[in-house]
Amino acid sequence: MNADQLGDEVTDQLNGRFTDRLADVVAGVSDPEIDVGLRDLGVLRSVSLTDGRIRVHLTPTRISCPAVGEIARRVRSALAEAAPGYGIEIVWERGAWQPAAVTVAGRDALSRGGYRVAGTASSCPYCGSEDVEQAGRFGGAVCKVPYDCRGCGSTFDVIGTAGCTAMLPTPEPVRGGSR
Amino acid sequence: MPHIPTDSDVYEVFAQSGHGTALNHVGSIVSPRPDAAWHLAKETYGRRDDLVKLWVVRRTDMIVSSADDRGLLAAKTRMPYRQPGFPTARRRDRSASPPAVAAPREGRDSGLTERRDDAREPGLTDLWLALADDLFVLGNRLGEHIVDYIDLEEALAVGSIGQEALAHAGTILVLCGFDQPAADARFFDRAQAQWQVSRVVERLTDWPSLVAGGLVIAAAVAVLAEQTAEAAQTAGAEQTAGAEPGAAWLPAITAIRDEQLVHLDHWRRWARALAAWPETRTEFARAYAEVTERAGDMFGARPQSPAQGVPAGAAPAGPALAVTLHERLAALVGENGGPGSRLPDGPGTRTWGVGGSALADSLSRGRTVRDEYAPGVFS
Amino acid sequence: MPMATAAGHRCYELWDPMPDEVREGARRFAAVQALNELVGVLQYVEWLDRAPSHTRRQMLMAKIQDEVGHGHVVARVAEDLGMPRERILLDYLEGRTKIHNIFHYSFATWEEVGPGLLLTNSAAITQFQSLAKGVYLPYARALRKVEREESFHYQHALDLTHEILTHGDAEQRRRVQEGFELWLPRILAYLGPPDTDTLHTNRMWQVGLKPDGNDEVRQAWLNKIIPVVRKLGLHVDPALVRQAPSGEWEFEMPDWAQVKKVIANGGPSSQRRLDWVRRALDRNAPYRRALQGVA
């Protein structure tokens, strides 16, 4: 290994550590509506650094999430404070969010706010009762399905699958089609 | 009284995730066939956890309690519940869907065939841009119906579907390479003559027509998304030229498809309800016939000029593709169980400047604030 | 789970035996809020198809849907306490219930929407934060969630106002200022008449459903919103609102007789709101029956 290569490696490591720190900064940005960080919510996909430019990949919980503008603003301002002088680019990966990407800490934070994540056991986030029922197919926001707890009378939302409890199958034409 | 639900496509899923735990109801899924239901359940609920047991039961094979049974089922310790005047039943079970009505298929008009005199064949992006126009108008129309107070749950459905229609329209433009100002200019500053909406749009006036229009537009978007996803998968990871659909489109296009299928399902429920109910049957049959006979142009977009932001050199989609898409649309629309569809046998083409007052009003109101805004606000 | 509020009141869950006064009070609070969420959005619906960009239109639509969603949430709470949801709008049409004073007005310009939304939202948040300390826990939990979601719309209002103030022309900035001066007194009135010596005789206060007095909530709101408004660059006319050396906010007292008249459907848009609801319910009656009949 020559000196140049060694230098590159050190730079890479430093860069890596710096990028990790930037990712933590973005992870610490909280969702505008619920008290949960972007990484815990599964919204933060990756942070990279090339030529003095920070690129943040995010994914909205739903394509039509109205909070994308506010989230981007918060990420920009947090990064500008943590790493002044760097360019910031935010890339929205539409359609990439998965309920399974919510961390354990994220599930706890959501639960404290009165939310459950799709795919987890459907029990009341307040009292834990499993005597819950869906209160409609769509909620007040595109990412939420409303539920009622019959145990304690609370209302809560399940995040992640508005409109249905599972993906519908892909259409299979009765006749025609190219498949 | 316990009852047997009627929605035969719905399956309830029960799972046990560890040996120390009980078998729990984890959710429900919608599937046309039992074997597909099993796989979907495994995929949906078994993705993260190793399952010990998985039960998938067709909802119509179950005997379930209804709200009235709560008194019988309630533990004796919950005495306040039994006090006179204490609220008991509420919210009827909406999961059961109305019975399908078998309606004879009425005679179909032959497709409106117009001579294609444009310089090139339309590409997939042309088809998407035209559907984005439809989605934008539909989204706006639905916005006005959130506060129609049909009922609270319907308000939320209309709001969700409307928001998603607008967002899908915007996402399509992003995929096609538009930035925010260009997308706004396209949605707000084009004269009606430069729009290529489907003829369905001019009919988006009353509620039954919105149900029918929502249904065919959701079906068309789902069909085109499916086609695009297949094309993108075939193209593989290699980048395709310009903004023509490639692997980068996949996540968004798949999400759009899945969301539109949910919309389609919602409109189908409505179509079945309006077609089955004596008071609305005739009105809906007329609206549905008028909307479907206009829907032959769903995939009939003409090439759009590069000046409007469409990348030049888009791969031609070809007339064969329009036929394929149209057939898939016919299959999807025909499944709704409503009154006779008048969807033409073959695909027709779109014309510039249609959309009637539904589009004209939407455009003129959309410009009232925008036209007098200081130019700096949007830059 | 707290079984008593800070003021020492006992708290109640749905199935707990509770005094009729608490049950009826909570039901009324939730039902009135549901009505106001449902009819209150109409002033925003009127601007939906004039919102001047794709993003703004989406934001506005999301706001409208969210408010209806809040209506859905509190209507379910009221329903559990014996209030059928269908009655919420019927009671309004038949004059048995009233909407808040602020919902009897419309926005005259788009520039007015920003400050109107900002003031309304922040006041509602303060109000909900207070009511969330109440003794009926399912309603309290619903309010905490609603309040968090409202704060998202508050951000939107802030952004909209800021956008016009920084990029708009002089005429637009003037309209924002006017909008602020128009809506401030309305919101001061929305938070209710001064308590003076009436609070302690208020039954809802006594049973713990109304934890704070109107003045307390109003002062808390002014403490929060006036610095924000100043930071945005708006001028706060001392004739409208000013801070005394004690830190207490003083303001021009609303004309309560006039406010009462507005609430009794005597405001500029009162009739329009009633007509909208009546027409929508009538027009859609067959479709509603179809949905219910075959479901």
UniProtKB/TrEMBL annotation, chain A:
Residue ranges of every copy of the PaaD zinc beta ribbon domain listed in the record: 121-158
Signal peptide region: none
Domain MIP18 family-like: 25-85
Annotated SUPFAM superfamilies: Fe-S cluster assembly (FSCA) domain-like
Superkingdom of the source species: Bacteria
Protein name, entry field: Phenylacetate-CoA oxygenase subunit PaaJ
Lineage: Bacteria, Bacillati, Actinomycetota, Actinomycetes, Streptosporangiales
From TrEMBL, chain B:
Compositionally biased region (Basic and acidic residues): 105-118
Pfam families per UniProt: PaaA_PaaC, PaaB
InterPro entries: Ferritin-like, PaaA_PaaC, PaaB, PaaB_sf
Region (Disordered): 82-118
Protein name in the entry: Phenylacetic acid degradation protein
TrEMBL record, chain C:
SUPFAM superfamilies membership: Ferritin-like
InterPro entries: Aromatic_CoA_ox/epox, Ferritin-like, Ferritin-like_SF, PaaA_PaaC
Residue ranges of the TM segments: none
Record-linked Pfam families: PaaA_PaaC
Matches recorded under Gene3D superfamilies: 1.20.1260.10
This protein's name: Phenylacetic acid degradation protein PaaA/phenylacetate-CoA oxygenase, PaaG subunit
